[in-house]
Amino acid sequence: MANNPSDPESASMEVSETKLVNFAEKTKFDVVSEFVFPPIPAGGALDNRFSQLGVEIVYPNDVSEIVKPDGTWNGQVPSFGYVKGAVTYNSLSDIPGISGTDLAWIMKGLVDYTEGDVAPKLPEYFGKSLETSVFQLDPNQLLTVTGGYRAVLRRPLKR
């Protein structure tokens, strides 16, 4: 195998006088869809409030705390992080200069964002994987790099 994640184009090798062996059970892998939080709409009221306060939101890496077993939203707001200056906070109430009014307003905005923007996307991604055959080692196949993935292009044999 040839692999060079930092420069996939240079991940190549030449072989001669070799036999290609295919183990079907080794040519499959799981493709798992990872959930990525949609950004809070830029220019919207919640985004503007964060900007006014000099606070940047940090989206969670995991959505398991906000989903039911069927992948739907459980009604909880995710545990966001917040950055103000060079300091990261786990709670809005820990940030100096955030008033009770700002806190209530932002929490309501985060509930609306989670319910309107995040929740509809959860069932589409959460807990789904797909086992798929990637490729079989065949001298008539050409591997190329496209969008960070190796794509298998098959040329028909000329007889």
Pick out its properties.
single chain; 159 residues; alpha+beta; 2 domains; 3-stranded antiparallel beta sheet; two-stranded antiparallel ribbon; 3 helices; elongated
Gist?
This protein has 159 residues and is of the alpha+beta class.
Protein described:
It is elongated and about 75 Å long. With 159 residues, the chain is α+β, with helices and mostly antiparallel strands. A hairpin with a 2-residue loop joins strand 6 and strand 7 (149-154). Mean pLDDT is 77; it is low at 129-146. The chain has 2 domains: 16-32 and 129-154, no CATH class; 45-125, no CATH class. Helices cover 20% and strands 21% of the residues.
Secondary structure category: alpha+beta
Estimate the global geometry from the Cα principal axes: elongated
Number of domains: 2
Compute the gyration radius: what is it? 24 Å
Quaternary assembly: single chain
Tally of separate helices: 3
Helical coverage, percent range: 10-25%
One letter per element, helices H and strands E, the order comes to EHEEEHHEEE
Strand order of the largest sheet: 2-3-4
Q: Stretches where pLDDT falls below 50 for ≥5 residues? A: 129-146
Largest sheet: 3 strands, antiparallel
Cα distance spanning the termini = 29 Å
Give me the count of strands.
Answer: 7
What fraction of residues sit in β-strands? 15-25%
Mean pLDDT: 77
